[in-house]
Write a structure and sequence with these properties.
By secondary structure, this protein is of the alpha+beta class. The protein contains two helices and five strands, in the order E-E-E-E-E-H-H. The strands form two sheets. A three-stranded antiparallel β-sheet has the order 3-4-5, with no helix packed on it. The N and C termini lie far apart (55 Å).
Length: 89
């Protein structure tokens, strides 16, 4: 049996820019040399295979993120990783 064909809806044009509707914020991460906050976005009316990582500056998801706890400090993560790496038995 074949999976359904997905028709991609056209983007909304807002002030001449293409915009897509966010269905959900699935996850978050700190990425790259500068540890930029990114969200894993589930786009409305698109299959999960089209989920993408987007920087916090590129998406407007404040109301979707309010229910999430994003209190991980990237510096704490680095210190913890460095601490566990340097431990010797």
């Amino acid at each position: 049996m074949h999976s359904p064909n997905f028709m991609q809806p056209p983007p909304d044009l807002i002030e001449g820019k293409e915009e897509y509707e966010v269905e959900a914020v699935i996850n978050h991460r700190y990425y790259g040399h500068r540890h930029k906050l990114q969200y894993l976005i589930k786009w409305k009316d698109y299959p999960s295979s089209d989920n993408t990582w987007e920087t916090v500056e590129d998406v407007h998801v404040d109301e979707l993120v309010t229910g999430c706890t994003i209190d991980i400090n990237p510096l704490k993560l680095l210190k913890n990783k460095a601490g566990t790496r340097n431990k010797k038995n």
